[in-house]
Amino acid sequence: MLFPYKDLTVLLVDDATPILVTIKAMLIKFGFSEKNVFTAKSAKLAIAHASSYAFDVVISDFNLGPGLNGKQLYEELTHYRYLKSTTVFILISGDNSAATIRPVVELKPDEYILKPFTANELNKRLVSAIERKRVLAPLYEAERTLNPESGLKICDELEPFYKAYFFEIAQFRGSFLTMLSMHNEAKATFEAAIVKKPTNWAKLGLANSLANLGEHQEADMIIASVLSSMPNNTFARTEAAKVNLVNSKVPHAIAHLEIASKLTPGNSERELVIANLCLAMGDYAQALGRYRTYIELNKNTYRANIYSDINLVRFMLFAYCAHSPGSDLMQAIRSHLRHIIDTGSEQIKSEIDLTLAHYAVSQRNYSAAVTLLTKISTAVPPNHFYTAYQYAWLADYLELEEGFATAIEHCKNTIKIESSQLLFTSKITLLNELCKANQNKTRWIDSQFHKLSNTDDAADQLRTYLEIHSKHPRLKEVCFHIIKLLNVTWPTQLGGLQVKDIIQRCHAIVSQLYSESDKQSMNYESIYRTALSKCNERI
């Protein structure tokens, strides 16, 4: 008996005409109508077809020649919502190497078939996938629209009637509960699945829940057990990274993800996550390298847009401000910045202004940077995470503590539920590490000011202020007090040229970050000239 295929539409994608002809003939034999079977020899043409027709089945080769591959095609179709919740996506490939199979497994298509395959095998996979998608379509829709509350209700409705899909429904339930931070309930879901069958996905889901509940030792034991049996499984490495992020072990998480990237190159989302985590750890050069890989992997895809260009400049500026690695990087920054300004629209004006503020910081033009940041702060708060994070980073870098506190609140408001729990967690980590560094800095500075309050000796005070300045050179109050104290005392361990350099660096901060009225009320010009004169006498 033929499966009722007659009214279903199919898109076949392969760069080899004989393969298209062969599979089309199989489908017609199964009962598909010839007029409902469309073919495309490239991802670009496939996307064009999908924009006009709502296909029930898409069968694509993994290797499509120049341009996008089958994995990227699936990502494009998903992003543009050209696939219905019931659409079955099947990848086929003639390559059974780990380099091909691992990216496919990560993609999680509805089916994956190796060439050569028989008509009977294809038909069997089609029947299974179409029926599964028909039953679970509401769950896929809840997942796609990031509606975990609705997804949980659907799980409750489907589970009593579709026992054959117990594990699929359990996976959805565990994912929805995790999205909602309902970790006790997620733990119970994964434990129930393990009782029926101790699958690795359930064990890893349980580890994630335990980590979020603070049961770190047990979570680590589960992760270690799974990795001992399957060290080359990228899913296990990814889940291990998530657990380590929950445990605040960011370097361990990066290590797991780097192993996953070596095992399965080409996952652009993973490269973005690694870039985020390296940024969180202050490894700006590595962060920039990973983000450049992300850009390269996303050429000609939906991710290649003005926002990814702006983010690239952000990563460049983070690296430059931290290490000033050379003129080549600055030249690249200026080139990309010009392109963004020339092609940008009013819609991204705040992003452009923020990037210009960051550029001004890189040139030590702090007054221009603060002016731009003030302008941005009076406008609508940034609604993109990376924009809000960059503002907070700059506020911290420029020692604008009030601006930093406001920016952190904006950052928190931009973090929403995402389809990728790993990317979501990496953003949380970025925010947490920035807050932690700021808190550590504030505590240390407070301890130094406490020392200052306990001494009236000018030399002791100058030593403390210089120590603060060596770690936080943009604190304008510290810079002013150093210049003021140099009117009456001298750091015996330093020579005249060294002190003159300190005076000039402090003067640059005071002159840029204090208002003219503040400088007049402090009698700053006189204090500065006296300090400089005393220094010149010693040179």
Notes on the protein architecture:
The protein is mostly helical and 539 residues long. The chain is 69% helix and 4% strand. It has 26 helices and five strands. The chain has a five-stranded parallel beta sheet with strand order 2-1-3-4-5, sandwiched between helices. The longest helix is centred in the C-terminal third of the chain and has 33 residues. 37% of the residues are buried.
Entry summary:
This protein has 539 residues and is mainly α. Helices cover 69% and strands 4% of the residues. The protein is built from 26 helices and five strands.
Mean pLDDT: 94
Gyration radius over CA: 29 Å
Kindly state the number of beta strands: 5
Structural class: mainly alpha
Number of helices: 26
Descriptive tags:
single chain, 539 residues, mainly alpha, 5 strands, 69% helix, elongated
Task: Note the topology.
Elements: E1 10-13, H1 17-30, E2 37-40, H2 43-52, E3 57-61, H3 70-79, E4 88-93, H4 98-107, E5 111-114, H5 119-144, H6 148-158, H7 166-179, H8 183-196, H9 200-212, H10 216-229, H11 234-246, H12 250-263, H13 268-280, H14 284-297, H15 306-323, H16 327-343, H17 349-362, H18 366-377, H19 385-397, H20 401-414, H21 421-453, H22 458-471, H23 476-485, H24 496-513, H25 516-521, H26 524-538
Parallel strand pairs: 1-2, 1-3, 3-4, 4-5
Helix pairs in contact: 2-3, 5-6, 6-7, 7-8, 7-9, 8-9, 9-10, 9-11, 10-11, 11-12, 11-21, 12-13, 13-14, 13-21, 14-15, 15-16, 15-17, 16-17, 17-18, 17-19, 19-20, 19-21, 21-22, 22-23, 23-24, 23-26, 24-26
